[in-house]
Amino acid sequence: MVMLMTRLAVAAALLSLPLTAQPAAATTATATAAADPMQVYGAWHCSDDACTWAKVRDLAAFDTANHWLVDRGDGRPSVNVVVLSFVNPLRLLDGTTDAGNAAGVPVGMNQQVVDYFTAHGIRVMLSIGGITYTGDWDTALARNGTLLGQKAAALAGRLGVGIEIDYENSSNPNLTGLQAFVTAYRAAHPYDASGADPTARLTIDVAAGDRWLSGIDQYATANWLTTANPVLDYANAMVPNKQPSASTAIANWQEHLDGKPTYSPAIPPLAPAKFTAGLYIAEGSQVRPECVNFANSVQQATGSWVRSAAPNGAGSTAGLLGFMFWAAEKPSTRGVTTAPPNGCAGGVGAGATAFAVPVPMPPLRQS
């Protein structure tokens, strides 16, 4: 995902769309019931303060703002994973305690918030980085990538969560330092194909296609995301600077399946089972159809492709792992919120029904 300022680069406003109830989703579900369900279907979560999580939330108020995530309208959750965004990597390395952080972790990312989701069968992860903290990633990795990985592993163990790497340096990423981070994390929490250990879930964000964050994309695809010797569980193909059309979205995601053989070094193809597709639900001043109107959404229009995309040089099974949505609650200071009266049960929740998303998340495909 792209944090804060890049999230604000949005297109012209759409007409407001009413919350769509379940019947539209039920029709789609009937038409697509024969397809394999998506395994990953989740949302990045920014709390109510534009992704800083700098205050402890009142749990009753938090539930009011986020109940759609745990109840799509029939008692079942709308998602099977939530990624709390963002932890500042340099503060984590330094163990900073200040007005918004305790020992390097945003105070709002606490056990009660984690338990709120896990009590409903929703997996929880913490995202380290975001574009605002790119420079802090650079500093932290240059200083001690191994120690940063160890601290991330300890944080995961303390809260019972997974970790997402969101390092958005497209020009000169510190891949040596990032390798040290991953090695240290995996020393504490080895890769777990069963998915039973939540702390072993370690993922990375890449761009919507292969043409941005190319260095990180190339290194991660070649070294960490192979099906023969997996190190990371999967990559998230993030959202571009505005919501794409269905055709543009598919073209972006296809780049990961194809790789970039003419690049130097070449980006190898990525197995469909090793990445998810990202879409907006809240974008600047707009609540998208992806949030409130599944029938008119990009996830509805691209869902068949996402579930059936064929391998093209990597992997042996068809279909991406699923969708991730940017972002629950309030991803920008002057932007829209997914809290009531909005809520995304009619978009994300209806999609969970249409795509027969399993909750809790099952063991992920490995090939």
From TrEMBL:
Protein name in UniProt: GH18 domain-containing protein
Keywords from UniProt, A to Z, are:
Signal
Which Gene3D superfamilies does the record match to this protein? Glycosidases (3.20.20.80)
Point out the signal peptide segment. Answer: 1-21
The species this protein was found in: Kitasatospora setae (strain ATCC 33774 / DSM 43861 / JCM 3304 / KCC A-0304 / NBRC 14216 / KM-6054) (Streptomyces setae)
